[in-house]
């Protein structure tokens, strides 16, 4: 028999697909199957663009992720759009699992990959449309996938014989929304020409037999191969080169003990490399793997040569995550003058005080600057109860401090002395100071100046005693 839209049981709706529809994005595709349509885009980035995930076990990252959007307008409705719901998360996860097995390894293709599928109309399996559109977008972006994949949604209608049986089950390919609602099965299958990468099964009946599942899988394979042929008409294989809008990536390895020299004190060295060579990002892993990204391949090579020359003599500040630590570099430069006021950079904030760098280090980051401690008692002329909160209220990254000298080899700095020199809260040599016990002392003086109470006369005492005796007689 015929289905509600006039198709045969194993017939797939008309497919129209196109790649490279958007000029500025890295990869794009428009996939239309019947009344279901998806606009898919692919974006490539460096390792710093991985999706960050917070879980109960701690933080994690994902190199590839697919984001699925299903606005109310795609089904002719108006409504509020906000954070993704459970349906969008589930459909996106299904499409993501279908595409993940065909991606190249991070070693051969060191890019983070993001695919977005925007559903513009929906009347049957938008998640499988996202698989097809996402695959085309990846190939348009030049991602060397292992093989194209496609997805199809299968359904099952029960005949008039009653109950679930092989003779009573009617398998239909590429189901509509109506067949999904009135049918007994929604079986989504995605894969390439060799096998299945993911599937999902929803049923409304009591169960399925092995023969029914085999029939559904065989019919799904026929439909999947048909869709793959249609995708090949739009784009047969991944593009040979990456688009000009994709940042170029260079990757190399250094020794773990040299990581500190590349990063520099406070990240000064790595920031200078990014700025000097016009890099988009520079990521240094704990095992010494360095990834450079930028739009200019020549400058990437220059930055790589600079880093290799920088670490040629060994590490400067110790490794990250283990390994033998080299001796810490020391400050090399003029000594500070006692009593001189310095405008220093805040390098650390703690409950006990603030560390301030009063003299800078080498420009190439090989030696650190000279820093000292401004104790919490030396931050202000009045008592500071919360050091981090007080420094945050100043809304500054620098402090004016006076160098007081060394104490056990450590530099002692004072902001309070600077304020006192400027007349805030009294001068450093004397002046008025708050006497918090003056009020109490004054009260004691007032109490001592009051005369003692006068003593009663003998007549008054006799009158009171006589009155008490009269009360007792009553």
Short description:
The chain has 474 residues and is α+β, with helices and mostly antiparallel strands.
Descriptive notes:
It is a single chain. The chain is an alpha+beta fold. The radius of gyration is 39 Å and the shape is flat. The chain has helices at about 85-100, 125-140, 175-180, 210-235, 260-265, 270-275, 295-310, 385-395, 415-420, 440-450, 460-474; strands at about 15-20, 25-35, 35-45, 50-55, 60, 65-70, 110-120, 150-160, 170-175, 185-190, 195-205, 250-255, 280-285, 290-295, 340-350, 355-360, 370-375, 400-405, 410-415. The strands form five sheets. It has a five-stranded mixed β-sheet. A five-stranded mixed beta barrel has the order 15-16-17-19-18. The chain has a four-stranded antiparallel β-sheet with strand order 9-8-10-11, with helices on both faces. The relative contact order is 0.08. Residues about 315-325 and about 425-440 have low confidence and may be disordered.
Strand order of the largest sheet: 1-2-3-7-6
State the end-to-end CA separation: 122 Å
Helix content: 25-40%
What general form does the structure show? flat
Structural class by helix and strand composition: alpha+beta
The sequence of SSEs as H and E is EEEEEEHEHEEHEEHEHHEEHEEEHEEHHH
In round numbers, the mean pLDDT is 84
Number of helices: 11
Query: What is the CA-atom radius of gyration, in angstroms?
Result: 39 Å
Strand content: 25-35%
**Based on DSSP secondary structure assignment, what is the total number of beta strands?**
19
Largest sheet: 5 strands, mixed
Low-confidence stretches: 314-327, 427-440
